Amino acid sequence: MFARILDGIDLVVRWVSIGLAAIIVLLLSAQIFFRYVLNDSIVWSEEVSTWCMVWLVFLGSATIMHRWDHVHVPLFLQRLPMRMRPYFVVAAKAMTLLAVCLIAYYAAVIFQARFHIVSQTTGVSTRWIKLSILIGSILMALFALRCIAVDIRRIVRGDRGYFETYGEMVEGPTGPEGNR
C-alpha cells in the first residue's frame, strides 16, 4: 500500500517536473521573441523561469531518488566481498537518508523564518521558492526509506544477484523493485 502511494506521488512529481520544464522553455522562448523581434522584454520571465528551475531541481531530485538513479561511484563497493556488500549498500543509503533529513530540517527552519523578500516584478514571496527545498527533501527521504526497506528485504531473502550487479551499467527496469 505504501509503495503504491509513493509510486503515485512519483508519477505526479514527474508530470509536474515535465510541466515546469515546459514552462521554462516557453517563457525563455517568449522572452527571446519579445527581446529580439519586438524590441521589448517580459520583465518577470527570467525570475519566474529561475523559480521554476529551483522547483524542478528539487522535485526532479526526488523522482531520481525514487529509482536510486542519481550518480554514484560503486568502485569501492564492487571491491568488497559479496557477503559484506549488501550491508554497505544499505549503510550508504542510510547515510544519504540522514543527509536528506538534515536538509529537510534546515529547509523547515528557513521556511518558517521571517527574512523572506517579496519580488519586485511578481509580488511573490521567496518563501514559496524555499518551500521547494522542504518538499523535495521530504520526498527524497520517503523514497530513500523505501529503497532501504526493499534492500533489507533482499538481504533477508538472500537475493545476492541484485547486490552482485549493484552499480553496473545494465539496461532494463530500474527503481526499488527493478534490477540494476
Structure description:
The structure is a single chain. The chain has 180 residues and is mainly α. It has one domain (2-164). Helix content is 70%, strand content 0%. It is built from six helices and no strands. It has helices spanning 2-36, 45-67, 75-78, 85-112, 127-157, 160-164. Helix 1 (2-36) runs antiparallel to helix 2 (45-67). The protein is elongated and about 65 Å long. The model has no long low-confidence stretch (mean pLDDT 87).
- SS element count, helices: 6
Give the number of DSSP strands. Answer: 0
Structural class: mainly alpha
Shape: elongated
Radius of gyration: 20 Å
Low-confidence stretches: none
Number of folding domains?
A: 1
> What is the percentage of strand-forming residues?
under 5%
Mean pLDDT: 87
Distance between the termini: 24 Å
The helix fraction, in percent, is: over 70%
What composes the largest sheet?
none
Order of helices and strands, N to C? HHHHHH
